[in-house]
Amino acid sequence: MPTKLSLRDFSLAITLVALCAVFASLSPQFLGARNLSLLLTELSITATLALGMMLIILTGNIDLSVGSGVGLLGGIASVLVFHFGWPAPAALGVGLLAGLLIWLLMGTIIVRERVPSFIITLGGLLVFKGLFWLVIQNATVPVVPGGQTNLYSLLTTYYLPPAASFALAGVVVLLMVIAAVRGRRARRSYGFAVEDAPTLFLRLFVTAQFIFLIVLVTAQFRGIPLPALILGVVAFAVHVLTTHTPFGRYLYAIGGNEEAAVVSGIPVKAVLIGSFGIMGVIVAITGFMQTAYSGASTSTVGDLMELDAIAACVIGGVALKGGRGTVLGVLFGALLMAVLLNGMTLLAVSPEFKFIARGLVLSLAVWMDVKLAR
Amino acid sequence: MSSPSKFPVTLLLLSVILSVLTGLVVARSGGERAAVAARPTLVLAVDPAAATALGFDAAAFTAAAGEAGVNVVAAALPAGDLAERTRGARVVVLVAAPGIEPAVDAGAFVVAAGNVLPGAELFVPAGENLTARTAAAAARLALGRPLIAAGFTPDGAGTIPTVTP
Amino acid sequence: MKKLAPVLAVVVLIACIAGGWGLAHRPAGEDRRGGLLVGLSLDTLKEERWQADRNNFVKRVAELGGETLVQSASGDDTRQISDVQALISRKVDVLVIVPHNGAAMAKAVNMAHEAGIPVIAYDRLITDCDLDLYVTFDNVKVGRLQAQYLADRLPAGRPLRLVRIYGSKTDNNAFLFKQGQDEVLAPLIKAGRVEVVHEDWAADWKPENAKKITNAAITKAGRNIDAVLASADGVAGGAIQALLEEGLAGKVIVTGQDAELAACQRIVNGTQAMSIYKPLKQLANRAAELAVALARREPILTRTGINNGRTEVPTVLLDILVADQGNLESTVIRDGMHTREAIYPNARP
Asked: Is 0.90 topped by the overall pTM?
């Protein structure tokens, strides 16, 4: 139940608040509208990838190739736009398609040939990195020729204006309320237990407050960044997929006990390949955002992003053995990693300590997970 | 209370925290001053006779500098209080008869347009489009942007960096 | 009680918003000391050279009354963009960037300009953007001094038989070195005083490629070579290796650049004639001074401009020196680039 916090959730929340407090006291600009807006963009890129990773980890698999994939798919789109003069939407479409096909292929190999996903995707990490460098010829390929703008470059430079942001937030909250009321009525008509009205009200109320708070903050710096909207759509889709569809239930079932899933007639192979297909699409979307954020495809785009995505999942309570994990948890995990990195960068902490701090936070989260799971 | 354990204390607490944050954010809205740098100002002192001889157009200069983002304060030469009027100005553009050295404020950066003036920090040689060339160079300096001055012009005592076309 | 929760929430909301408002309306503490803030975004700090640059830069800015925030991207372009974003968020007055990738950092320059912050490119040019200033060594002059060293040592009565080894074709600086060399050599070649017996580009500046080129030159032109015009010390080292095997080392004039330790040792024992010494400390100091001047919006004039694909970027070129047996003591050793013990390993009493 979302109304109850476990000891683990509670300590993570405290960690996040403490981190923010430390960063804000060392540099007041941490809470400035500009930095929060940037933080939201950085969070969106990491979290989108982490949500895809969650689908893979739920089944007990893992994907180490996503970081290289981010570079490769972004690079394909960049090259099509910059060297071949394609319109950005077409180039992005090709990138998406390439992501889907490559990951379907990887999923098929994992399922049909029974090669552990760890190994196949480790191979993918290296192969995609090499392909990426080949595609961009080890050069710098901008996402848009000579200082113009296109759909590609706008991915991280477009902001939904404040007025439109408020309108959008209003619509989202309204839809949320309607969906909640309808769902409640439906459950009651089937004779299921429903949560009591005040709790439901408060839950919606807090969510609405949260949404409007974000809109308020971003309104002070240009508006809602486009990546945040993309994250919102991806998070909603993954949430619906995992909690309201048979496919989602199968993911949890496979991760919980694969043999039992096979016995109970779940199309395990198709579901696994499907989860990798979705991962491919998400890698492509993340690749476009990350490349647009960098402004160009260069040989280092996407480096180590797979680790950030896995870290966000683990901190967010996704079990590496599979079968457990929620969208909200992953978003929280990604937020913790993004805050950590953003704050340390703002304080101009040297790279050595950034690595150490991120590693320690990750290790602590896993340790806590193991300890509390016993 | 039927079941006190189910009372959504956590949610209520969360709501309170969010409300305080909302209040904080609303209060500072508009507080984050956008980094709108004040428009810099430069002083233009023109000797009408010299300007006519050089084809220098003070009005066109002011318009061009304004377009580049710089305000222009105009003064006529000869002016006894030029040092006073150029106090605090970062850039002073002088269009004067050759060789004279008007007394400008010591802190100002002097651009001599058309005629070489001793002690000037930059010289814009006479010729085609003197007004536009001078406006571009002076506005750039007033905005605090570095300027390429590849040439050198002797001024008796030493040499003055010179804008080459 | 439970029925009251919504009402309670709304009341609390209003009270809290008011409370938050009240809290925020206390005078906001500004995060600014009186002095100015300089942002330095480095490609990497993993090399000794850049650590020294950082230290000199920070020290000079402090002497001028400023403070420096240093970021290091560890050779990652995306990280360097984030670093610059963070420096902009910290409201630095001026940005100094050593780009890992000069083309990729154009975006960083645009972001800084949107926030009204001027940008200096340090040592490496940032291309295709409206860069404010570029501070570097005079790379054309490097080539000119190397060639002039040979021009001052022409043999009497016959042309100087010369092997030319250029740098990596993917490095723009390699072309600038060649340009400077050509300025000096072209008239001499035309006058028949210099005869280029062999020339080639050493891919990736690799010594082994330079060695192959030198071997090819000896095969082609025989042993009577007077000089090898190598663009940098690494390449010179490769050439000298080939000359050693041929028994020619010390008899042929070999040029270089960077005053690397190995090159200084070769200069001492006579196998390499000269190198080009670039005073890195002066570069850091000059960049710091210009950064502070730019932050204060003081008028800055430069002698030269370099085209970066978008605009003529005002460029400050730092002078460089010839280092040979005569002046190692007064240049490389005095400035602390290498110790005397390191350069003269056998000279211990």
From this structure: no
